[in-house]
Amino acid sequence: MSHSFLDANIPELISKLTIEEKISLLGAPNWWNTTRVERLGIPSVRMSDGPNGVRGSSHFASTPAQCLPCATSLASTFDPELIHNVGVFLAEEAKLKSSVILLAPTCNMQRSPLGGRAFESFSEDPHLSGVMASAYVKGLQSKNVAATIKHFVCNDQEHERTAAESVLSERALREIYLYPYDGPVI
């Protein structure tokens, strides 16, 4: 991306977009790239999945990636500096693959030991998860790679995950499920 785009006045840039261009930004040409608007110099932005290694731009025929220990193992060190360094390392790998957004970290609560994707999350403890996610995000951002924290609140089971209803109290929502997102997002 050019420095001129990064320094652009975003509200002014948005005001110059046609309605068709604005709508095009809601979709994308594929899973891993945003739509570009050449007329205004808005580049396509590449993202990659990979909480423990930058996968690249394919689900199956991807370029080789480093494979770090899973988030649960990393959080078990209780070492935010280590997690920050993991973020820095992954940011450098993302840049090698021309990605400026990493779909990570995973910040769900490990509410069941049977969760098929629990290993992607830091912990069952909201505070520890928030501390680790904050360190991870700061590591990515220190190298100008954006973090996309996932899989947002109460999306922490695989079976019927797109159709399941999460029933919980407001207190549980705030104290357990939203808590880990507070540090990295704000």
TrEMBL record:
One of its GO terms (biological process) is glucan catabolic process. Its EC number is 3.2.1.21. Gene3D superfamilies: Glycoside hydrolase, family 3, N-terminal domain (3.20.20.300). Keywords: Glycosidase, Hydrolase. The keyword Ribosomal protein does not apply. Residues 38-182 form the Glycoside hydrolase family 3 N-terminal domain. It catalyses: Hydrolysis of terminal, non-reducing beta-D-glucosyl residues with release of beta-D-glucose. GO terms for molecular function: beta-glucosidase activity. It is an enzyme of class 3 (hydrolase). Transmembrane segments: none annotated. Belongs to the glycosyl hydrolase 3 family. This is beta-glucosidase. It comes from Moniliophthora roreri (Frosty pod rot fungus).
